[in-house]
What we know:
This protein has 212 residues and is α+β, with helices and mostly antiparallel strands. Helices cover 17% and strands 27% of the residues. Strands 1, 2, 3, 4, 5, 6, 7 and 8 form an eight-stranded antiparallel beta sheet that branches. It is globular, with a radius of gyration of 16 Å.
Amino acid sequence: MERLVVVSEYELQRSSMVKILKKSFYNRDTALVAQELLGKIIVRIIDQDTPLKGRIVETEAYIGSWDKACHAHKGKRVANAPLFGPVGHAYVYFIYGMYYCLNFVSRTTQEPSGGVLIRAMEPIDGLEYMQHKRHTTKLHNLTSGPGKLTKALSITTVQNGVNLMQQGELYVLDAPKIDPKNIVVTTRVGISKAADEKLRFYIKDNPFVSKK
């Protein structure tokens, strides 16, 4: 059986005591937010008896004003409206007719739009539920990709626009900052436009990253 690694008991204890990330965290440069989201804890409440938690280990930044790969690049529409809305809210979209992708709206006040794609997380709590949803017991394959992650957490467009800054069905807890020397910066995955931009970030040597 695969062994769950990386998150220490100390970190878990700290994550239960710290506060939910607030507006000031998301209201900054999108690439910086993408990097500093690494290590933070996603909390998904299915019901009173089913709290799910995962540590963010991989992200990508999408910056609306110049980034041709960003959904907001060509302007505001009904489908991408959350990217132009308040920071600290979820933007969830459906892709390839199969997968949902979870993004956190993040940008400076000078930018009209922007967000961070959550590409992978390390599961912490609610493993049995996640395994059931993903139809697998392979831990390192459970949430190692944006579509896998949303399926494990039962995230769909129902959560589109959810306020991540208050306790509810989906929110994000602060956690110890990852040392920059332990963060890998690469180009983004699976895109053709603005493909050379180094806006993908992941925790070095973490087994739950989608692609090294």
